[in-house]
Every structure is written in structure tokens, then in C-alpha cells.
Amino acid sequence: MELKSYLTLLGGALLVVTSPAHAQVDFAASCSQIVEMTPNESVALTQGEYMVETNELPAHCDVRGTIGGNVKFALLLPENWNSRFLMVGNGGKAGILELDAASHRMSEGFAAITTDTGHDASIPEQASSKFGTDPDMERDFAYQSVHDTATTGKSLTEGFYGQEIEHSYWIGCSTGGRQGMMEFQRFPEDFDGYLVGAPVYNYTKQQMSAPAFLRPLYPDNNPTGGNPIIEFEKLSVLGAAVTAKCDGTDGLVDGLISNPAACDFSPRSDLTICESGGDDCFTTAQVEAIEEIYNGVQARDGTSLVNGLPAGGEAVPGGWGAWLIPDPESNSANMPILHRITLDAFNYLMFEDDRADYDYMIDFDFDTDPARMAEAEKAYNATDPDIADVKSSGKKIIMYHGWADAASNPYNSIDYYDAVNDAVEDMDSFMKLYMIPGMAHCRGGVGFENADFVTALRNWVENDDAPAGIEATRTSDRATRPLCPYPQLARYDGNGDVDSASSYSCQ
Prior knowledge:
Blueprint: H1 3-10, H2 20-33, E1 43-51, E2 60-67, E3 71-78, E4 84-88, H3 99-106, E5 111-115, H4 135-161, E6 167-173, H5 175-186, E7 193-197, H6 203-217, H7 234-246, H8 267-270, H9 284-295, E8 296-298, E9 304-307, H10 320-323, H11 337-342, H12 345-348, H13 360-363, H14 374-380, H15 388-392, E10 396-402, H16 410-423, E11 431-436, E12 450-451, H17 453-463, E13 470-473, E14 480-483, E15 490-492, E16 504-506
Helix pairs in contact: 1-4, 4-5, 6-9
């Protein structure tokens, strides 16, 4: 149904009423009627429910539906709409509607939408990576469902309000970051601005990080059960040694490593080695395991298969102690998160022929198996740097990544930034990367994690006001500091309050 037909259906009443009571009645009535819309034959709307204002959320229309029978979506339409459309990305293997994130953005005035990407994680046969037994679900998870949901959501939004969307935005971190990158590489017309956080955009490399990092830490090839070669308690010792060596690379000793790439920490030289073991020292086997995590894995020709992790994430909350060596007191399963999210990916997603009995800790071969993932690379990897059409169409991209991220490697984002910089002239005019010291995966850690990237993106898209240093706040003490576009760093000016962003400049 075209926009004109939508307006006929809804009476065009939402934007012309003057009485507040009348407006509420008309909005509620239009909400209930939205299920009669048919953007195309693949879309089925199942709910249009008017939600009254609460202390948490404004009045809005909660729209639910499916695309192609299996892709579920929720579209939240606020009564006081800001004429903008926003889609939020997923985490992990998706399979759920990200309603909290969508609701948050809807409360800011956006028409906000979320999708489960075509499979339902509450169904055992589709949970984790098992949806990969279905080729349609694989394609939807890879890229198709996000595009279909975006186009459907924009059509419904314009029909409901009876006016065109002024600007549209993508926001996502982790898997949501990969989804955003897949969008601007495959379907750049879907959004005007993209906020991409800690993206697992090289999906096959992300899976390979599990055997690369967990094999050295778990010599028995069993990451479950509390048997790492390095005890969780020793991560604080390792982290303290790294901080002592590299804290001052930004010109200020403040407990925060701002430039891990400049850190020359050497486990063999900078750690105390004691073969008998001890609380404050490391055995040679433990040192070798740490070195393997920093070094990553190279192919026989010297190219990188898995980037090593940067220094600085060893002891931060949400760092190594969550993803690689879990705290047995807080992790009841005693299972590193990296293992949990990778556990069956090799069985159902990475190879063209599913292998239910494949154990990546034992079976994965870095010499032969990467070539077997060629089809997975085509489907899941958003690695294309030639995005000149994004620039020419006036779209904007802000990427961000925490330096202490042990889940999605920070160096991967820098690799993509460098690749785009080589492929597209004047990249700075449409794409910027922010590396956040001390921040773990998407959030948390010890850094300045609270930054309003959304406003920065909107100002760039809508006012051509390119972001530079973006002020961020640290959760623990409310201190502030600018986040600087890569490769710049926030450097202390030499005087003034060290906890105030005004005492720093991007250099």
C-alpha cells in the first residue's frame, strides 16, 4: 500500500488535530488500525497497541509483525515524534527483539525498530548457532533481515504519521556493529547516519579468536570447569605490571593506558618468573600463554589470521576476566564468555557442511580450515573497504571501540579504518573512529565510557558539524575527558584538573 493509501486508512488525523484529548483518541485509534497496513505481501502485522504514558516511557504505538513469515520485528512509534527513524542492532547471535534499546531511543522521540533477525533464541532448535541448519535463517542473520526490517519500518512510519522521515539512523554494538557495517556496505541507502560500536565485522576471524586465545590458556582443551593455566586471581598481577609499564604513554600517569599500541610490555622481561609458582609470579608456561594472546596467530605466509589482543584489558572489569578466564565466584558455569558464544558456531555457521560433532578446541586447523570458511566469509563478513558510495551520497559513519575489549579485538577496527583510508579519498569527511581507553566490550571497564555519540552523529548528518573531541564521563567518579578521533589521543595540557575534559586536548 502506498503512502496515499495509508493516509486514507488513518484519516490523516494525527497531524491536524488541535485538542490534546482528541489527539490522544486519534493516535490510539490509528494505532489499532495500523494492522490493516500491507507494505508488501511478505509483511504481516500482528499488533498495533496503544501504550499510555508511564514514568518510564512516553505514550506510543507498539507495532509487531513478521517479514517472510519468520523475521519478527517491533516498531515503537511515539506520540510526539521527532520526524526521525532509528534502528537498533542486536547482540550475540540475535534471536530476540532488543526492546530496551528501542524503547530508550523511542523515548527520545525516534520511531525505533528492532528485529530478531529471523530466528527465535527461545526455541531450542534455533538457539545459539543452531539456526544455521536453515539456509534462510542463515541469510537473514547474515544481512537480509536487517535490510528488510529497515525498509519495512520506514514505510510503516511514514504511512502512520503521514509525512516523510527527515533522517534515519543505525545504532549497534558488537553484532549490531557488524550489522551496521553490512548495511552501509550492501545497502547504504537505508540510513543517513551509522553509529557502529566494537563491530565483529570480520565474523570468521572473530570465531578463530576462540581457539587462538583459549587453547594456550586451557591446555586440556576444555574451557569449562575452572582449569585455566593462569588463575583468575593472577590477572590483577598481570594487569598491574602492564599498567606500570605503559600508563604514561599519553603523558599522564593516571591508571589508564590511552595508547596500548605504543605499549612495549614484554611478559618475559616485565613479569617475575618463578617455576615453583606463587601469588605474585608466573611460570614459564604461563608467560608463554600470555605471549600467545598478545601475538595472535599468523598464517604460514606471515599474514595475520587473528590479531593479538592489545595490552591493558587484562584486569579491567569485563576484560580477560570475563571473556578468557572467568571469576569462579561470579561465573557459576566457570566458562569463559568467548567459549560460550563460539561453542557451536563452527558446527553450524562456519563451514558449508554442518558438523554437529566438531570440537573447535581440538579439531580446528589454522593451516587448512580458514580456506574452508570461504562461503561464511561471503555471507557474514562486512570487510569491504570500498565505500565511496557512502561518501558520495552524504552518509556519515562514527565507529567506536574500547581498547580493553577482550571480545571483539580493537585492532580489527583499526585495520578496517586503515583499509577505508587507503580505498577512499578524504575519508575523514564521512567516517571517524574513536578508540576509548580502558573500555571493555561496548561498555564497562575503567575508562570514559559514557559519551553521546548519537548527538554527535546527528549534528554531523543534519548540520554538517563534523565531530572532533567528544566529551565522555567515567561512571565510577564522574570525571570527564575528551574522546579523540583516531589516531589522535587526549593529552593532558600540563595544568588544570586532571579529572576535567577542559584540561586535555586532542593531539
